[in-house]
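[job 4471] stage=fold_predict status=RUNNING
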Amino acid sequence: MRLLYTLLAAGTALTNSTAETVLGSYEIPANGLQAGKVYTMSGAVVATATNSTDTLRIRVRVGPTTLTGTVCADSGAVDVANGDVIAWTLTATVRNTGATSVVIVSGFCSAPGAEGTATARVAFESLSIDSAVAQKIEATGVWSVANAGNSCRCDSFVVAEMV
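[job 4471] inference complete, writing structure tokens
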């Protein structure tokens, strides 16, 4: 396995906003995808402060431009408590390359459930992307309510290539 990217410090906090915001990202360069390559993507977002029953939604997107990529994993809107973590582990397999490359993404996204139990969501997406164009892998977050008491940050974001 070859490490392509890892977050070395806690990401910038998403606070007091209802706008979907990039919390962590890595860009695969143009023509960087090759048929038969397999990538792993994992990460975790921690709710550092929460307000009432406001919800947090974490997504992992893949696409050529910021915040427009296909959602490959989605926590759903979760009523998080202080210290709750939403985590994901995904595998992406490149089937072919070109203007209509096919990349299969599968894995899990887990979010806190009732009384701190984890709820896993299976992620599966067949992407059709242009491998001649750089592709962004982004972890995003969005709060249901803009409140100064709502804050989260990406504490882990890792992209690796199987070799």
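[job 4471] summary: The chain has a mean pLDDT of 92.
[job 4471] exit 0
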